[in-house]
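Tutorial handout. Part one gives the primary structure; part two gives the three-dimensional structure as tokens.
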Amino acid sequence: MKLDDELNELAALQDGLISVEQLRSSGVTPWLQHKLAADGWMRRIAPRVYAVRGAPDTHRQRLRAGLLCLGERSWISYEAAAALHGLDRSRSTAVEFTVERPRRPRVVPFVVHSTSRLAPIDHVVVDGFRVMSATRTIFDLALARAHPRRIEAAIDSAVHLQLSSPEVLARRLGELRGSGRWGCRLVEEMITDSGGHTMLERRFLELAREAGMPRPRTQVVFGSDERFIARVDFLFEEVGVVVEVSGQKGHASPSERARDAQRRNELQDLGLRVFEYTWDDVTKRPAWVRQTLRTRLRSMPASA
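Part two.
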């Protein structure tokens, strides 16, 4: 006695798993279910969830098992959601879920959170899994008291991957904020200097704010439909100033330096002034960056 082809095909679509509900829908009785497990054709890995024989134990399978066990109103969340979205500093082995209150899940072999504040915008499908959105995941990480640097990394990578934006975060903040919800104030503080794609860009935005300068536009593209010129880190539009921040490695090869020079020249041809701050400038000489930024921006006439 073994699983029929239809059930094997269904399990193949579910990372080697089958639920008791699906067994019943296919006509498998409790007695036959017990017999199939006793004969080694499947093994129980969570309440009401079985893995078919030969299915490898993988991280995907554990995520799938949780969703099958907890039902349709459950979502991968917190660190597990952050990893699925590809947010920086995520733990790729995390297995966490969220269900709606007042549901109380049965005893399960994974972490389950519950919430009474859930909107359709809070959940999406990623790689075939029901998962909390990147925006909601950022708030969940804050609620779980993740380190502030962890929240910064999540926000900046979500913006970089175009999974969220400072505007979307601010709007959802207004909806989620309420008595007893920890972490909203932390996210609000983190949004202030968000919009860049890296920690270095975030630090520069922080320095510009501390220097009393207007917030620049971030990741601005120059060019036309026919020709791309450059994507710049920051544009202080009113005075026509571009600021670039370069990482620790920078561009060292002759070809890279040549491209950088051409890029700078073409931006200057557009009437822009271009300044660059290095990793060491931003992280080790912040006072100097604030001072020179004030001087450079205030010495520039406003653009027409």
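Part three, for discussion. The mean pLDDT is 90. DSSP finds 13 helices and twelve strands in the chain.
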